[in-house]
Amino acid sequence: MSRGRIGLRDCAIAAGVAAILLVTGLAGQRSAAGLDLLGYALLTAGGLALAAQRSAPVPVLAVTGLCAVGYQAAGFDVPAVAYLFAVYAAVRAGHRIVTVVASVIVLAALPLAALASGLHDTGEAFAQARGALEVAWLVAAGAAGEALRQAERRADEAERTREETARHRADEERLHIARELHDSLTHQISIIKVQAEVAVHVARKRGEPVPEALLAIQEAGREATRELRATLEALRDDSTTPPRGLDHVPELVERARSIGLDATLTIEGERHGVPAAVDRTVYRIVQESLTNIARHADAATASVRIDCRPDSLAVRIDDDGKATPTTAPTPGVGLLGMRERVTALGGRLRAEPRGEGGFTVQADLPVEQSS
Which residues contact 270 (CB under 8 A, 6 or more apart)? Predict the structure, then answer.
């Protein structure tokens, strides 16, 4: 049962019960005089209190019980309908012991209230109390509340079971993907890395200069191995965070320089609690952009600019390659992947040729500030 707020349905029930109690009180015979106003007020209050039966079932139970005893003492022989609703709500909310104690007190107080209303016959007083609150109806209200509470509990358990099953299947799928990646990529990357290392070793052993491209292949193989290992660990355990982020962007720029690209890095502003997802996305954008420049742009220079703002983080990569507005390249998997990452974080990505020649990639990522 939803808790914490009063809904339109609760208000409608409360108004309906209050109206029924008032009509019954107006139509019935009263055994005391001069207490009509108090009796009508208690009848109304007992019904209207039901508006809060979801958000505060125990207080409503107490209020409706007191009102039932009160209007009986005022001479109104009206059934304690509101109290039955309150019993149902309290038991449904799980307050069984409190409900039993309160009901025993109300059942004991009703005959005394009937005697206080002016009745002098004890038997008649007990009969009036029994008419106001039949034990059978009281038990039925409590049983209905308990039955619904048990049904809701079973539904919650079933939902938790479904969620646990879904998480288990997701874990199995991550392990399957990890195994597939391991089988398909690790072996080939290892061969590339080993071959490059052997070539570097042989060249140095012969006293020959090692080509820069060969050193770049060697370093790229090592980096690919590290990142693949981190990715596999993340797939095996979704709480593992891949270790690459803003702090590693200088390494990307330095690696670009090692293959002959005149790359520069500018970072402005202060970083204040950049979320891990944004941190990783910036790294991936810079990595993919510099990779595209090295492969396709035929550029001599590249600039990476990161602007840390209070509520956002902007990254821009420019090159002086061969791209022009009239020869815009077809977006590949790399650009589509960047756009998906940025969009998933609620940011914007612009990737297009520059008017003066070359290509620019610019991403603006929102940074939520913790209060």
Answer: 308
Report yes or no: 352 and 338 within 8 Å, Cβ to Cβ: no
Q: For 218-225, what is the mean pLDDT?
A: 74
| Rounded CA separation 368/87 (Å) | 46
User: Which strand ranges, in their side-by-side order, compose the sheet holding 301-308?
Assistant: 262-268, 301-308, 312-319, 359-366, 348-353
The answer to whether the CB of 277 falls within 8 A of the CB of 342 is: no
Paired tokens of 230: 């981190």
| DSSP 8-state secondary structure symbol assigned to residue 327 | G
DSSP label of 76: B
Q: Collapsing DSSP states into helix, strand and coil, what is residue 263?
A: strand
Give me 246's structure tokens.
């803003």
Residues pairing with 365 in the sheet: 313
pTM over 0.85? The answer is: no
pLDDT tens per residue, range 262-318: 999 999 988 777 888 888 889 989 988 888 888 777 889 999 999 998 888 999 999
